[in-house]
Specification:
Protein name: Arylacetamide deacetylase-like 4
Number of strands: 8
InterPro entries: AB_hydrolase_3 (IPR013094), AB_hydrolase_fold (IPR029058), Arylacetamide_deacetylase (IPR017157), GDXG_lipolytic_enzyme (IPR050300)
Helix content: 40-55%
Domain Alpha/beta hydrolase fold-3: 113-265, 314-376
Order of helices and strands: HHHEEEHEHEHEHHHHHHEHEH
Number of helices: 14
Strand content: 15-25%
Pfam families: Abhydrolase_3
Largest sheet: 8 strands, mixed
Distance between the termini: 76 Å
Oligomer: single chain
GO molecular function: carboxylic ester hydrolase activity
Length: 404
């Protein structure tokens, strides 16, 4: 009898557990009423939360690493064959890439697009961005190179940035062999892929031994790790897929740091006053247009913690925080398209970089997706399972690319 009672209790625990998780999704994961298709976003957020809990438990039991499970989810479903494109896997200077070439003959050399995927440097893959890269190649009649940089934590920072640089330089040097005009190469990326894109363009801007990058496309990019209390951090602190706390958690995971540093970093305790003063001219809520600051409350002063600062020195490098690059670097950047989303914790980083570029006479095209959210692009190409904002973001990028 006792044994039977235990079985019944265990049987009841599963639905109770699921109800608890769904309740957590409802109460903790914020889905604004004016976001794109809120009911669908709520469902996807709940499924993602379930996957996260499963991943954490399996990791705790030493069965499989947490990031491995989430990678399976973010890889998406395989795409069908595409009759309009030649698709082949290559290595550019040792870096895995997939190249998409339109089958239709061209009278002249085509433009090239280097695409660098997002995923916090921990997730994401060539396969996960297959539909996006195919669409860019077809709609803009471009040769697209998708960079399959190796992921953290297996490959430590800054391996990801270095591989993106090597692949881009290789393509710039060998463009002719792929039927590409080396003077018409654009680099494009979303989220941390936007960060890598910004870094690649900063690093190569003043080089004279290779062709110049013609333009860059930054889709809701991550651009700084000094201030996590900007207006968009407050407004979208709990919005689905990339809450404010998750942002810092993933940064620490990417850098292979102790995640107990998350709270002091969120508070700003990792930044000494001297650095705050130095970069206030570039990272400052006062630089954000007023219409994006409704309800914003400046944070209270926080205590500087030297031991936290010492642990996260990488956050103050332009390779991690491209917004910190000096004006001498920024003024050499190519034409830029920035796409921001209203319901994105990283919104203001795009706005601040837009201002920096314009202040340095760099030509900027800016699109703001009022109902968009972080990671919306990742749903592109899945038909009824996608979001209208996914297509809006994609088409803004393609229309810009077609102008070059």
């Amino acid at each position: 009898m006792g044994g039977r009672r235990k079985v019944v209790q265990k049987t009841k625990s599963l639905p109770c557990f699921l109800i608890g998780v769904l309740w957590d999704c409802h109460t903790q994961g914020e889905v604004p009423s004016d976001v794109d298709q809120p009911a669908k976003l709520r469902l996807y957020h709940c499924l993602y939360t379930l996957m996260e809990i499963l991943a954490k438990n399996l990791n705790h039991l030493s069965i499989i690493k947490e990031h491995t499970i989430i990678r399976l989810l973010t890889d998406g479903l395989p795409a069908w064959q595409d009759s309009q494109l030649f698709i082949k896997d290559l290595h550019f200077d040792g870096v895995p890439v997939r190249i998409y070439l339109p089958r239709e003959p061209s009278a002249s050399k085509r433009r090239g697009v280097v695409f660098i995927h997002g995923g916090c440097g921990i997730f994401g893959s060539i396969r996960g961005y297959e539909r996006i890269c195919r669409y860019i190649a077809r709609k803009s009649d471009s040769v697209v190179v998708s960079v399959g940089y190796h992921l953290a934590p297996e490959h430590k920072y800054p391996a990801q940035t270095l591989e993106c640089l090597r692949a881009t330089v290789h393509f710039l040097k060998t463009a002719d062999t792929h039927g590409v005009d080396p003077a018409r190469i654009i680099v494009c990326g979303d989220s941390v892929g936007g960060s890598f894109t910004a870094t690649v363009c900063q690093e190569l801007g003043h080089r004279t031994d290779i062709p110049k990058i013609r333009a860059q496309v930054l889709i809701y990019p991550f651009l700084q790790a000094l201030n996590f209390n900007l207006p968009s951090h407050q407004k979208n602190a709990a919005v689905a897929f990339l809450p404010r706390e998750h942002t810092v958690h993933f940064i620490l995971k990417y850098l292979n740091k102790d995640c107990s540093l998350k709270e002091p970093i969120l508070a700003g305790s990792h930044v000494p006053e001297s650095i705050n003063l130095k970069y206030k001219k570039w990272i400052n809520p006062d630089l954000i247009p007023d219409k994006f600051k409704l309800g914003y409350k400046p944070p209270l002063p926080t205590l500087f913690l030297p031991h936290v600062h010492e642990e996260v020195q990488e956050l103050f490098e332009p390779w991690m925080s491209p917004l910190l690059a000096e004006d001498a670097v920024v003024c050499g950047l190519p034409d830029t398209c920035i796409v921001t989303c209203e319901h994105d914790v990283l919104r203001d980083e795009g706005l601040l970089y837009k201002k920096r570029l314009e202040d340095n006479n760099v030509r900027v095209t800016w699109h703001h997706v009022e109902n968009g959210f972080h990671a919306a692009l990742g749903f592109f190409g899945y038909g009824i399972f996608s979001f209208p904002s996914s297509s809006t973001i994609m088409n803004h990028a393609v229309d810009f690319i077609k102008g070059y």
